[in-house]
Amino acid sequence: MNSIFCLLITIVAAVGCCSSTARGADIFDIFRKKPATNAPAGGGLAGLSQDQLAAGLKEALGKGVREAITTLGKTNGFLMDASVKIPMPESLRTVENALRTLRQDHLADEFVTTMNRAAEQAVPEAVDVLIDSIKQLTIADAKSILTGTTNAATQYFRRTSETNLHARFLPIVQTATAKAGVTSAYKRMTEKSLGALGQLGGLLSKQAPDLDDYITRKALDGLFLKIAEQEKLIRENAGLPPYGRLAAVIIAGSDAAETERFVRLVARAAPKGEGVVILGPATAPIHIVRGRFRWRFLVKAPREVNIQAFLRAWLKDIKPKGSIHLSIDVDPYNFL
Asked: Do 6 and 234 meet the contact criterion of CB atoms below 8 Å apart?
């Protein structure tokens, strides 16, 4: 699926007929609501701009980003989470092994702890960079994210902000590493290991890794991982693809009043289905095309529901007349 706009309009329409609080919700919050009836929605929905609709997605993404940063940007946010904990750099594993052989585990553990503390201190500063990335979200980006894979938004963030984020993140990490004592912990660790490592220890001391860059990259990896987890959770809770099925019922006619009457007839005939939510009807964002007035319903169902059978039961006795045309698009590629 590659479009967001009729999806959003239909959601807003359905919620608007049963809840006066929908305006303050992001689109994923709205998707989780179930309309009280299948009656047609009123209101000037055709006047909603594409920018207004995309704003709902931006709000949801902003919530996910802030939640991910809050999770990581606290004491033990990195250190006590195995999925993001920053380990000893590969180039220092020999030093680590030597220390543990000498029963100096506390020096190795101290070093790992200070690296993770630096990341925890730095991560909250990423909020502005990621929110700026969300603000730059285009209409095409919004379509791709909403209807994409479980980590489509995370991929967008990585593609559009990782380079800039690294550049802005690095000096923050440098300050944080100084506060956390990473350099001093590194010196204590390597000095203690030099005797045990002999000539190798001297070589390692001359070829020290760029710890600030290492911590920055690992902190960003952890941040994007948590953003992806938030995105997956949002999609799953909202029943969005790939965790749910969507179908569009599309009605168009050359006479405005006749088309609207038919739309209301279709709405009244809508059956009840366990787990199935019918949202709409609503006018399309581009309501009139080539003299034809266009309306949409959106049917949302769990993956296990036979959505085609539900649609057949709903529409089998409804016969369009005159200029009216009704079509069905399961897992639609275009809502415009």
From this structure: no
